[in-house]
Amino acid sequence: MSRGTPCEIKGDHKLCTRCDLWLKFSEFPKHPGGTMGLHSHCRKCRLAMGSDWKKRNRERVRENQRKWQNENREHRREQAREWYQANKASRKDAAKALHERNRKEWLEILPKDPRCEICDRPLTYWSGHQTTSVHFDHKKNGLPITHMPSGWLQKNRPTPEKVALWRECDFGILCLFCNTNLPTENRIDWLTRAVRYAGMKLHNKRIPE
Q: 42 and 116, same structural domain?
């Protein structure tokens, strides 16, 4: 049958005028003016035609999208709020499971039995308590991972690229007290003055009789 002839019906099947296949009625989208209230093209052909049209009219598609987004900005925000509220619990559970998986995988890569590199206090990765957890120290500014290394580990799976990025940062392992009191900038100058100060105090200390 040629493309131009009217659609034919055989029982519960209809002929697609584009691919010339006999398909069940359920394979055709609805169309009020079509035979049996169905479109003359099947769903797969309609999708292919739509995809082809979008490729040939990319700028027009973009312009229509921008126009719709601008005209429906508040509607889109309301939809996003509703979706967030409806999926808050599931998103939280999914994030928790993701973080747990990533932590387990990173534990196979991070140093075992971590201790503070300054005071030698034994520490634990993600212990749940600030005072006993590892605090990763930025030894210098300008590192690829700029904020909260522990959080970065939980959000990123240890792929070869991520592991290389982590090792490039060469973070120190410190406890809360040492990490809080050690400055990121001008460390050598700060430590020199601290050692000089401690030496002066020791030199001036009176020995008990």
A: no
Q: Are residues 45 and 105 in the same domain?
A: no
User: Is the pTM above the cut of 0.90?
Assistant: no
CA–CA gap between residue 148 and residue 169 (Å, rounded):
12
Q: Please give the tally of structural domains in the chain.
A: 2
Residue 122 belongs to domain spanning: 95-192
Is residue 42 located within the same domain as residue 125?
Answer: no
Q: Which residues fall within 8 angstroms of residue 117, CB to CB, at 6 or more apart?
A: 172, 173, 174, 178
What is the band of 201 on the pLDDT scale with cuts at 50, 70, 90? low
pLDDT in tens, 148-172: 999 999 999 999 999 999 999 999 9
Alpha-carbon distance of 13 to 15, in angstroms, equals 7
Note whether 44 and 20 are within 8 A (CB): no
DSSP string, 106-172: HHTTSPSS-B-TTT--B-BTT-SSTTTB-EEE-SSS--SS-S-HHHHHHHS---HHHHHHHHHH--E
* 24 contacts 41 by C-beta, under 8 angstroms: no
Given a contact cutoff of 8 angstroms between Cβ atoms, the answer to whether 117 and 173 are in contact is yes
